[in-house]
Amino acid sequence: MSLSRYLSGAIILVVLVSLCILGCSSNSSAQTKQRIGIFDSRSVAIVYANSKFFKSPYPEIKKRMEAAKEKNDTKEIAKIEYEAKLHQAILHDQGFGKGSVNTITDLYKDKIAAIAKAENLSAIVSKWEVVYSNPDIELVDITDKIAAFFEPSDKMKETIKEVPQHEPVKDAFFIDD
């Protein structure tokens, strides 16, 4: 076999392998589109705070406040008032702003992982944390699936359907009520 025939055959083989690789990779990338689960953290916070699963810090804070007032401990009273304001600010930011709900979702990691597996999701994040998404990534809203953990009433289901129709409140932690 002459050198020119050998090189021609090798070139043809390289071209065919390259075409096969390009063809196979373009088909496989279309089939392996990344799916990312997203949720509206405000809806999760609102449904959780209105569920039987919510552990309000206020009864314990109230008991501590009463004890501090009985002792006339002004330093402890000020500390408890500050703590109560911080709790309220966090709740406002979660329910009306873009505040993290990791303290809530951490309680349901196993259930969230099951959703990810069932929906073929590579990751799950708050929709407010997605700064950029490549067009090859499919964002899948799973807000209702997470909200279902908290067994919402029909009225609460209607409420959380309205949440996405409103933009988050900027600096929601400053809401004073």
Count of DSSP-assigned helices: 8
CATH architecture identity of the largest domain: 2-Layer Sandwich
How much strand content do the residues show?
5-15%
First-last Cα distance: 90 Å
What does this structure look like?
The chain has 177 residues and is mainly alpha-helical. The chain has two domains: 1-32; 34-174, Protein Binding, DinI Protein, Chain A. It has eight helices and three strands; from the N terminus they run αβαααααββαα. Strands 2-1-3 form a three-stranded parallel β-sheet. Helix 2 (41-49) crosses helix 4 (74-96). The longest helix is centred in the first third of the chain and has 29 residues, at 3-31. The protein starts with a helix and ends in a 15-residue tail after the last helix.
Quick take:
The chain has 177 residues and is mainly α. It has two domains: 1-32; 34-174, Protein Binding, DinI Protein, Chain A (2-Layer Sandwich). The chain has eight helices and three strands; from the N terminus they run H-E-H-H-H-H-H-E-E-H-H.
SSE map:
Layout: H1 3-31, E1 35-39, H2 41-49, H3 58-70, H4 74-96, H5 102-105, H6 109-119, E2 123-126, E3 138-141, H7 143-147, H8 154-162
Parallel strand pairs: 1-2, 1-3
